[in-house]
Amino acid sequence: MNFERLHRRPMQWLSAFAAGCLVASAAVAQSSAAGPARAVRSAASATDRAASRKTSPYRASAKLTPKAKTYYLAAWGVDKLKVSYTSSGNLIRFSYRVSDPKRAKALADKKATPYLLGQKSRALLQVPVMEKIGQLRQSATPEAGQEYWMVFSNKGNLIKPGDRVNVMIGAFHADGLVVEGS
After folding, report:
1. Closest by alpha carbon to 181, among 82, 64, 56?
2. Do 144 and 98 form a contact (C-beta atoms < 8 A)?
3. How confident is the model over 25-74, as pLDDT tens digits?
4. What angle do CA 139, 141, 144 make, to 5 degrees?
5. First vs last Cα of the chain: how many Å apart?
């Protein structure tokens, strides 16, 4: 009789173990089937989080402050400073309007090399020189009320819309201008 009892218990243990394995394998099968769906849900939620991030209110304001406008007008005789991104992205256009031709002469000086420095990327761009055309900039004698421009080569798209840049032409420096999209 004792032998029968000992013999029955291992059978009970064995059947309980088998039942436990079946339950565990069913749970694993369910979790692996839900795994890809869970991964897709987590990727979608990461995309939603990235899209719902707030942008900086300072980056959106591409306009110069009234104090800066007054400074550039009084010191350099220019206003309406604008830096814009071309549709291809390979060129960045800097434009300005002349109010006082005598003061704005420094911007049209052919001997002064213009540079555009990206504050974030630290990329230093130059005005490209074409063989038959020369520099891609206007360097005529400034006239009041006229708008002038120059184009900087942005090969490799190092500077993007929304980036802050500094424009330097000889002694002239315009710092913190925001690149506007095309």
Report:
1. 82
2. yes
3. 555 555 555 555 554 454 455 555 555 555 555 554 557 788 888 899 89
4. 115
5. 94
Taken as a whole, the chain contains a residue count of 182
CA–CA gap between residue 119 and residue 136 (Å, rounded): 23
The Cα–Cα gap between 164 and 13 comes to: 73
Tokens of 102: 């005598």
The reported pTM is 0.64
Cβ neighbours of residue 114 closer than 8 Å, sequence gap 6 or more: 94, 126, 127, 137, 150, 152, 167, 168, 169
Smallest Cα–Cα separation from 94: which of 66, 57, 125, 70?
Answer: 125
How many Å apart are CA 64 and CA 177, to the nearest integer?
A: 8
Q: Which residue has the tokens 């020369």?
A: 134
Cβ neighbours for 125, distance < 8 A, ≥ 6 positions apart:
92, 115, 116, 117, 118, 152, 153, 154, 158, 159
